[in-house]
Write a structure and sequence with these properties.
Blueprint lengths: L1 E6 L5 E5 L4 H10 L6 E5 L5 H13 L2 E5 L2 E5 L7 E2 L1 H4 L9 H8 L1 E5 L12 H9 L3 E5 L2 E5 L7 E3 L5 H12 L4 E5 L5 H13 L2 E3 L5 E5 L8 E3 L4 H13 L3 E5 L7 H9 L3 E5 L2 E5 L9 E2 L11 H8 L5 E5 L9 H6 L4 E5 L2 E5 L8 E3 L3 H13 L3 E5 L11 H7 L3 E6 L1
Parallel strand pairs: 2-15, 3-14, 6-7, 10-11, 18-19, 22-23
Antiparallel strand pairs: 1-23, 1-24, 3-5, 4-5, 7-9, 8-9, 11-13, 12-13, 15-17, 16-17, 19-21, 20-21
Helix pairs in contact: 1-2, 1-7, 4-6, 5-6, 6-7, 8-10, 8-12, 10-12
The structure holds uridine-diphosphate-2(N-acetylglucosaminyl) butyric acid.
The site of uridine-diphosphate-2(N-acetylglucosaminyl) butyric acid has 24 residues, from helix 1, helix 5, helix 6 and helix 12.
């Protein structure tokens, strides 16, 4: 198993380029099930979760070719309608194949994903939506079995904002009969990227990016060529890397408008952010101000940036309160951050972080993807040596992170344990 060894205390500087978005690529790959054709995607990040999605698609009968960050998917040969536990348990987003398989074949059998380190993460709203569209759904032996001769358009009002649920029903509705209206839909930029792909395939979708999406089903969808949007969470992580080390970093291939909530909070913390000619320059402050955050669905502060922002607040001048409102167990980085000397207390979904003068390097363990990133950030800002183990979590979602950080002057190496 690999671990990262970081000798902290270096101010990061220079240029870094953000990769394509993991959370946009996963549903987009799955959406090709709907269109039996050859598709091409560029700016695809080289990640473990992308590999898992490729394996799921291959298991269904798709042919996939990769060349650097370009991936070609031929979905004409798909002849199976089952996603097994072995794959779904390693990446819960695989469950999104259910709706597209059901649309294409009238039946699908997909393993239930089960719990996750950051929360229970049920898929009840995905299933409720598919049932409203006429699917006959049953659960047996840990699998969801769904049948529908033809999915029918429906009006679906989500109880809570769900990114995966919105993506799932958007795909299912694209070739359903009649009109589907998704109300209280999630508005994340990844949903807009997925809608753009479906529209290029020939789908009729209006309102993606707002809380009401209207989809008029079409009888068939065709091939698509698409460049994936940049990964906003990777970009945000580099912004905090610059901020926490008091560095000066220029970030390329990012869409700053996707990170408004983070930008406002970083500015309140004293970080300077300059957006010029599509390059975002981030300068860390001498003194970090304490700032409160509450995670919310987009355009609120992203839960996927909470752990990294907490690392920054560990070194703030004063106390901040960080409230996690999306997942019920997303504070596992707290006890690891305390191993660096951070002063954090939690009560329910709120963590009070009292800034300390310095963090000191420590051996720590990654518990989930974004938690791993927060430990690296703390390590970069610490004196002495930090060892982050269990970094397989990190490899799910950050492309070449240690190489990118080393390119900015960080002393960081991947070694085998
Ligand atoms: N929820 C339900 N029922 C459902 C669906 C969701 O109760 O049927 C709950 C969840 O348990 C959670 C909340 O609704 O408490 C929001 O979950 P959502 O469905 O929005 O999350 P997701 O689609 O499973 C995606 C990202 C996550 C990101 C969340 C929130 C992908 C592959 N994953 O998950 O990304 O945290 O949206 O923005 O897009 C990550 O990249 O590290 C990551 C965890």
């Amino acid at each position: 198993m690999d671990k990262l060894v970081i000798h902290g205390g270096k101010k990061l500087s220079g240029d870094v380029t953000v990769s394509g978005s993991k959370n946009a690529s996963l549903p987009v790959f799955v959406s090709t099930i709907l269109a039996p054709a050859e598709h091409e995607f560029s700016n695809v990040p080289f990640l473990r979760d992308i590999n898992t999605t490729i394996k799921v698609m291959e298991q269904l009968g798709a042919t996939i070719q990769g060349n650097g960050n370009v991936v070609r998917i031929d979905t004409r040969g798909i002849d199976k309608h089952e996603a097994t536990y072995e794959l779904v348990k390693t990446m819960r987003a695989s469950v999104l194949v259910l709706g597209p398989l059901l649309s294409r074949f009238g039946k699908a059998r997909v393993s239930l994903p089960g719990g996750c380190a950051i929360g229970a993460r049920p898929i009840n709203l995905h299933l409720k939506g598919l049932a409203a569209m006429g699917a006959d759904i049953s659960l047996s032996h840990g699998y969801v079995e769904a049948k529908a001769k033809k999915l029918q358009g429906a009006r679906i009002n989500f109880d809570i904002s769900t990114v995966g649920g919105t993506e799932h029903l958007l795909m299912a509705a694209a070739t359903a009969k009649g009109e589907t209206i998704l109300e209280n839909a999630a508005r994340e930029p990844e949903i807009v990227d997925l809608a753009n792909v479906l529209i290029k395939m020939g789908a009729r979708i209006e309102g993606a990016g707002t809380d009401t999406i209207r989809i008029t089903g079409v009888s068939e969808l065709g091939p698509v060529t698409h460049r994936m949007m940049p990964d906003r969470i990777e970009a945000g992580t580099f912004m905090i890397a610059a901020a926490i080390t008091g560095g000066d970093v220029k970030i390329h291939n990012m869409q700053l408008e996707h990170l408004d909530a983070l930008v406002f909070k970083l500015q309140d913390a004293g970080v300077e952010i300059i957006n010029k000619d599509n390059v975002v320059r981030v300068k860390g402050p001498k003194k970090i101000n304490a700032v409160n955050i509450k995670t919310r669905p987009y355009p609120g502060f992203p839960t996927d940036m909470q752990a990294q922002f907490m690392a920054l607040m560990c070194l703030a001048d004063g106390a901040s309160v960080i409230s996690e409102n999306i997942f019920e167990n997303r504070f596992m980085h707290v006890s690891e951050l305390m191993r660096f000397g951070a002063d954090i207390t939690t009560e329910g979904n709120a963590a009070t972080v009292k800034g300390v003068k310095k963090l000191s390097g420590a051996p720590v363990m990654a518990t989930d993807l974004r938690a791993s990133a927060s430990l690296i950030l703390a390590g970069l800002a610490s004196d002495n040596t930090t060892e982050v183990s269990r970094i397989y979590h990190l490899d799910r979602g950050y492309e070449f992170i240690e190489k990118k950080l080393a390119g900015l002057g960080a002393d960081i190496k991947r070694v085998q344990e």
